[in-house]
Write a structure and sequence with these properties.
Blueprint: E1 2-6, H1 10-19, E2 25-29, H2 32-42, E3 46-50, H3 58-67, E4 75-80, H4 85-93, E5 98-101, H5 106-138, E6 142-148, E7 153-156, H6 168-171, H7 176-180, H8 182-192, E8 203-208, E9 214-226, E10 229-239, H9 241-263, E11 267-272, E12 277-280, H10 282-288, H11 292-295, H12 300-303, E13 306-308, H13 318-325, E14 329-330, E15 335-338, E16 344-355, E17 361-370, H14 372-386, H15 396-413, E18 416-424, H16 427-434, H17 436-452, E19 459-464, E20 467-475, H18 479-493, E21 496-498, E22 501-503, E23 507-514, H19 521-537, E24 542-545, H20 548-570, E25 573-582, E26 587-599, E27 602-604, H21 606-615, H22 619-639, E28 646-649, H23 652-655, H24 660-670, E29 678-683, H25 684-689, H26 691-704, E30 707-713, H27 720-725, E31 730-733, H28 735-739, H29 745-760, E32 764-767, H30 773-782, E33 786-787, E34 796-797, H31 798-806, E35 809-810, E36 814-815
Parallel strand pairs: 1-2, 1-3, 3-4, 4-5, 23-24, 26-28, 28-29, 29-30, 30-31, 31-32
Antiparallel strand pairs: 6-7, 6-10, 8-9, 9-10, 11-12, 11-17, 13-15, 14-16, 15-16, 16-17, 18-20, 18-23, 19-20, 21-22, 25-26, 25-33, 25-34, 26-27, 35-36
């Protein structure tokens, strides 16, 4: 037996060659043309043929094989990565006997090739038996003779005297007993008068041929009469020795087949053409729970119920497909057999139709076996091949695969990947003093601690010894890697207990980043190792980035976050106020509160620390500080009798707080302030993130009597639908429109539209960023009288703003009413 593998990829050939190793002699070719030439030479029994090949694809190769008389009878099994029923149907229509999809299950490949080889062997044996029978029929010896009424020979076709050693010429005139023997002559005479004239029954007799051998024959006699007198008879003798021998051989073959079916490890069930069971071998009886007698006549679904291994839904039995589609059908890989007692077995193999001697479909046979243990073992072996035996963490093999995937995903989505190399400090001392058993237990506990400190999608791997690797995929901010490193150090700093003994561990961690430090996983590992070594040198129990610049930047940022938190807690922040002026009368009608942070004697721009506060979760405490400080300053303005409404800016996280209105009301009450002196400013984007929640909060603020402004109006969503739905009091025209309104007609048109919109909806207006008198004049002419900007005042500390409000006149336009 021989197998030919045709595939243009060498690795695929190796996989298939390993799968069929030992089943037969294996040949291989890397192209369709070379495969055809090799096929004529080795005349393979089975061809494993790839479909997608350059030049001559698998379908063309199959067509050529079937067209060549030398290779026409080989069994072609298509092997492909294509998915879909249409490819399988095309493969079978092209003359293929089976269809294997990649990725390949090597056990399935081997089983199917084995079955086709076995089928080829049986086919050859049957073909040889048919040829033998044909030869017997073609050369069937037949003795034909005529005997007169005296039973004297008158004719014989035995020219050479092969039957009785007497040639036909010499036999003429001889008496019947002289030729066939006395016993046979008596038998012939008895049969001659047993039946009707022309229908005497055939009978068997044994004769000695010319070589002295015994021939088993079948004889027939036909009487001939003339009037009332016998005129003689015809004697026909055929040699049925071959038939006798064939019957004995067939009996032996049938007995061998019975023993084989009873002895093989596969279950075999035969059905009639209606799918009713006619036979089960002992393995099938054991696997289904049905005996052959009980199953006879039952439907295949009743005896062999199948379900889908994933969904549990009933699955179509392959016998039905084999009968309806008249082809060999493979069983689904996740098929489960439900035994008669309810137990479930994972099974696989195939069904095929059976034809009678006329070629008509007479039934089907399904051959299957239990793969439960094999599948479980495969899963276990796969897991063991990819995981560390001690900690059950992924090993280097699985880490490499996941790193490849993470790098590909990060490249597509413009994200970062971080690799953290963790080495336990002084762990060898524990192994040498406490013993390796204790060390192994500690490593298992370390693995659990590290897993608990990571996201579900992160990968942690044990490289061996006391070294672990953490892979952080799909991260947008490189600082996240530093946060994770600190979290892991904190987790390892907690006390470990083994058999009531305390152990204190620490670790040194090196961090490398993709694509900042390296664009491949080997480079990432090397750089993480270098960073880890630096952490060891700097005193251990710490982490280091491979990039010193990035590490310095993250350390500065981390320190800045700590100082900002301290400033919020200790009151190290300042409130500045910028006036809102009614330019018609030169009167300050409101203030906007703006937070300032004096860090190391220098005022830090809010653009620097507000986003930082949002990222690190400090924006809500910062907002609470602003609310308290503004209310405290408002109380002083009330005491000085110069109070005007003050607006505060709310971040998205503050506005999302369900307790916002209650917190504001409580703070106002603690300073004995009326609610109309406090206003809130919210951006458009914050409002539309959750329309229902925003509407609820705005209504709660409105009930308190707190006015709401839309800050930077016109730069965001700017939808009439939410303006109509929300209880909004003020629109603030963004300074980006005011800045170029005198030179850009589009900006002027937008401002005009906003003013008209506010007028229609009965909302107040405030123009931001007014720095030129011409801008103020144009805005006033367009209908906006309340302005805010450097033309009137920069944001001022509270004391300076208090002095400004105490002046009898403001901006020299008109006295402030008492």
């Amino acid at each position: 037996m021989s197998i030919l593998i045709i595939d243009d990829i060498a690795s695929n050939i190796k996989v298939l060659r390993d799968a069929v190793d030992g089943l037969a002699e294996v040949f291989f070719a890397t192209s369709g043309s070379s495969g055809l030439a090799l096929a004529r030479h080795c005349r393979p029994d089975v061809v494993l043929l790839d479909i997608a090949m350059p030049g001559m694809d698998g379908y063309a190769v199959c067509e050529a094989l079937k067209a060549d008389p030398v290779t026409a009878d080989c069994a072609v099994i298509f092997v492909t990565g294509y998915h879909g029923v249409e490819h399988e149907l095309t493969s079978l229509q092209q003359g293929g006997v089976d269809y294997l999809q990649k990725p390949l299950d090597l056990a399935v490949v081997r089983a199917r090739v084995f079955n086709h080889l076995k089928l080829r062997m049986q086919t050859r044996a049957l073909a040889q038996a048919r040829q033998d029978l044909a030869d017997v029929v073609a050369h069937l010896p037949a003795f034909v003779s005529y005997w007169d009424d005296q039973h004297m020979n008158r004719f014989s076709n035995d020219v050479a005297g092969r039957w009785f050693g007497v040639p036909a010429a010499s036999m003429a005139g001889m008496a019947l007993p002289e030729v066939v023997g006395s016993a046979n002559a008596l038998l012939i005479r008895r049969r001659l008068y047993m039946g009707p004239l022309d229908a005497a029954p055939a009978f068997e007799m044994s004769i000695l041929n010319a070589d002295g051998g015994v021939l088993h024959t079948q004889a027939s006699v036909v009487r001939r009469e003339r009037g009332k007198q016998d005129s003689g008879f015809l004697l026909l003798i055929t040699d049925v020795s071959a038939r006798k021998h064939a019957e004995l051989a067939l009996y032996d073959e049938k007995e061998r087949m019975r023993i084989m079916l009873d002895s093989i490890g596969d279950a075999v069930i035969a059905t009639d053409r209606y799918g009713c069971v006619s036979f089960l071998n002992p393995i099938a009886e054991d696997m289904t729970g049905w005996s052959s007698e009980e199953a006879a006549g039952q439907s295949i679904e009743r005896v062999m119920p199948l379900i889908d291994g994933d969904s549990g839904a009933p699955a179509l039995n392959p016998v039905r497909l084999a009968l309806s589609e008249d082809r060999i059908v493979g069983m689904a890989l996740d098929c489960v057999l439900v035994r008669r007692d309810g137990r479930r077995l994972m099974v696989e193999d195939s069904a095929a139709p059976v034809r009678d001697r006329h070629g008509a479909q007479s039934g089907a046979i399904i051959v299957f076996h239990d793969v439960s243990e094999a599948r479980a073992m495969a899963y276990k072996m796969t897991h063991l091949a990819q995981h560390d035996a001690l900690t059950n963490l992924p090993n280097r093999t699985l880490l490499r695969d996941r790193t490849t995937q993470a790098l590909e995903q990060a490249s597509r989505q413009d994200q970062h990947v971080a690799m953290l190399l963790i080495d336990l400090d002084n762990f060898k001392v524990i192994n040498s003093t406490a013993g390796h058993a204790v060390g192994d237990t500690l490593l298992q506990q370390v693995a659990v601690r590290l897993q608990q400190a990571l996201r579900a999608g992160d990968t942690i791997c044990r490289q061996g010894g006391d070294e672990f690797v953490v892979l952080l995929g799909a991260i947008d901010d490189v600082e996240y890697a530093g946060l994770v490193a600190r979290k892991l150090l904190a987790a390892l700093a907690e006390v470990f207990m083994v058999d009531s003994r305390r152990f204190d561990l620490s670790a040194s961690i090196g961090v490398s980043l993709f694509p900042d430090d390296s664009c491949d996983q080997d480079g990432l590992y090397r750089h993480a190792d270098s960073a880890m070594y630096r952490a060891k040198q700097e005193g251990k129990n710490r982490f280091c980035f491979f990039s010193a610049e990035l590490e310095e930047k993250l350390l500065v940022r981390h320190a800045l976050i700590g100082e900002l938190r301290k400033a919020i807690e200790d009151g190290g922040l300042e409130m500045h106020y910028q006036p809102k002026v009614d330019v018609r009368v030169g009167r300050v009608v409101g203030l906007e509160a703006l937070i300032r942070w004096r860090h190391d004697g220098v005022l830090v721009s809010p653009a620097s620390f507000i986003p930082l506060a949002e990222e690190c979760g400090l924006i809500v405490p910062l907002g609470q500080f602003v609310l308290r400080q503004v209310c405290a300053d408002l109380a002083r303005l009330v005491g000085a009798q110069v109070a005007v409404p003050v607006s505060i800016n709310l971040a998205g996280q503050q506005f999302d707080d369900p307790a916002l209105a209650a917190d504001i009301a409580m703070t106002l009450a603690s300073y004995d302030l009326p609610s109309h002196l406090l206003e809130v400013e919210i951006t458009e984007g914050t409002l539309i993130e959750d329309v229902a929640h925003s509407l609820e909060n705005l209504r709660a603020l409105s009930v308190l009597g707190i006015r709401t402004s839309i800050d930077d109006f016109g730069t965001g969503y700017s939808s009439l639908s939410y303006l109509k739905k929300f209880p909004i009091d003020v629109l603030k025209i963004d300074q980006s429109f005011v800045r170029d309104m005198l030179t850009d007609s589009s900006d002027a048109a937008i401002i005009s539209a906003i003013i008209s919109l506010a007028s229609s909806l009965r909302m107040d207006l405030v123009a931001e960023g007014v720095e030129q008198q011409a801008q103020a004049d144009r805005l006033l002419a367009m209908g906006c009288a309340i302005m805010q900007g450097y033309l009137y005042s920069r944001p001022l500390p509270f004391e300076e703003m208090l002095t400004l409000l105490r002046r009898e006149t403001v901006f020299g336009l008109a006295p402030v009413p008492a």
